Amino acid sequence: MNKNYTDDTLVNLQEEYDKTKIQEVINELEQELIGLTPVKTRIKEIAALLLIDRLRNQLNLVSGSPGLHMSFTGSPGTGKTTVAMKMADILYRLGYIKQGHLLTVTRDDLVGQYIGHTAPKTKEVLKQAMGGVLFIDEAYYLYKPDNERDYGAEAIEILLQVMENQRDDLVVIFAGYKEKMDKFYESNPGLSSRVTNHVDFPDYTAEELLKIAKLMLEEQQYKFASDADKVLLEYAERRMKQPHFANARSIRNALDRARMRQANRIFISGDRVLTKSDLVTIESEDILKSRLFSQEI
């Protein structure tokens, strides 16, 4: 039997906030991701909506179930997968999904090569994702209208049915470049109407990439020499103008090469007794021999 509540019935927002511990996830977002202020703001807005929806449910207030399916658009290496993991955690803590895991897939995981192959593949992926979040990277590759023998449309149709009929069991996040994703939604209006939360991930600035590089090195117990910061910053500024730039991913690749050059520099130096500083310091020359200074990609 439904209980009738008066307008002055109290609900404790702070208690609900503390109980779900979503602030822990938001703090992790702030600490682990450099920049991305619009993204962090959008995630907080979504979390606030879902928290208030929980309070409304406590008072039996009728409201449409909040749309949870999402679209993450932006260049590679801008943190889309990391934010999706945090979003899955928030949804789990607020009780909107049962397990809270994130399953990342691409077209190859969903679409078969011949008749009768796509449906079983797509349904198996959906089975694995149930209770959590399904993250479909470069989702626009699901739709290839120029190829009559392509089975991507079949995968999309199955996804649409599950997104509508089992929306309490699964959240789907579509991800990819913004322009391509916009065309993807234009070509699939049924899909577009089911995706209510759009989050755009901006490219990092060169200064943000330098901060990211320092965090990456710290995690691996390395550090820059005093003059290496400026060299890495110049590298980032040049790399951003080149093809195939992938933001933090490009910086990680550059640091991997710098570490290799550092190891080679130490090895061929002839020194056989080393200090800790020798082993943890990336010198400017380890970067100067890298990438755009030597025209590598």
Automatic annotation (TrEMBL):
Residue ranges constituting the AAA+ ATPase domain according to the UniProt record: 66-205
Alphabetized UniProt keyword annotations: ATP-binding, Chloroplast, Nucleotide-binding, Plastid
Family matches, as Pfam families: AAA, AAA_lid_6
Keyword Cytoplasm part of the UniProt annotation: no
Tree of life domain: Eukaryota
Protein's UniProt keywords contain Membrane: no
Molecular functions (GO terms): ATP binding; ATP hydrolysis activity
Sequence similarity: Belongs to the CbxX/CfxQ family.
NCBIfam families per record: cbbX_cfxQ
Protein name: Rubisco expression protein
Annotated source species: Dasyclonium flaccidum
Gene giving rise to this polypeptide: cbbX
